[in-house]
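User: quick one, fold this
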Amino acid sequence: MKIGRNDPCPCGSGLKYKKCCADKIEIVRDKSVTGPVMDDIKQLLQGRTFNSIDDVNALLQQHMQKQSQTSLEDFQGLSPEQMHRILHYPFSSPELATIPEKLAVTPEAPIIKAFMLLADGIGEAGLKPTATGNLPRQLCRDAAKTYLGEEEYIRWSKYGELKSEPEFRELHVTRLVAEMAKLVRTYKGKFILSRECRTMLSNEGAASIYPRLLKSFVQEYEWSYQDRFNELPFLQQSFLFTIYLLHKHGDGWQTNRFYEDLYIKAFPRLLNEVQPPTSYYTPEDCLRLSYSVRCLERFAEFFGLIEIERPENDRYSEGFKLRKLPLLDQVVKFTV
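Assistant:
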């Protein structure tokens, strides 16, 4: 069976064949081949005789196809072929996982709390944005007090009142994602709830709003927005693998370091894409911080998939404990 250029690379990287080992079959003719993958191929060919290069390629393709369907420890039991589906077809791989368009439960998640505050603020009449296109400052302040609680808001704003929407990151991100999901739009100079959004809220509530926000958050919103590290879009592309890790290991408390280790073990080549902003950080430092902030805090916690517990005396600690919440198994139903 011939491996297509868009098929998962059988070496186990999880990348497409054309972006990984597509050219290596021809390199087999060269005696300078190195690396574990090519060592394996040379061992396969050792002692065999072939009538043509086509016979060589046929054997290699058969071997690599078998490898692509073999579960790997580094992938937490997933095969390269399954990983390929998780990375490139997360919403259309029911043989691995199903992400329903409507939840069977009413979701409790920070993003839903922020969205309801946004929807209430927009109301039936709509809401005029500021000159910079943001939500009015008073609405943001009122929403922040409700979202955070009066006591937490006082602590949060002790160095000055909230001045603009981007300072209230959770509401700001929710508004951007809601627009991407076509739940909120601008009409005649005002923010309004789309007709579809109003129907969804009236008929099904947050159970149908949540999946729409989730899909736009992972497919359209830029996860590196508002942080200081490299873009690393692969962190976002692999969101379903992160959920899989939480599904598999999240019943008990684990540290964020535990999940960072599993992720880097699965995708060590990602370290080559990291350019630290200063010499203070190593590529591994940057990748670990980016993963914990973007994947665990700003995605999994924000969407109510996990709860996070930090040291009592250091609420901003880079190290924390986490475990999955019941909502995770409602949002994604794994069959592996």
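User: anything notable?
Assistant: Residues 283-301 form the longest helix (19 residues).
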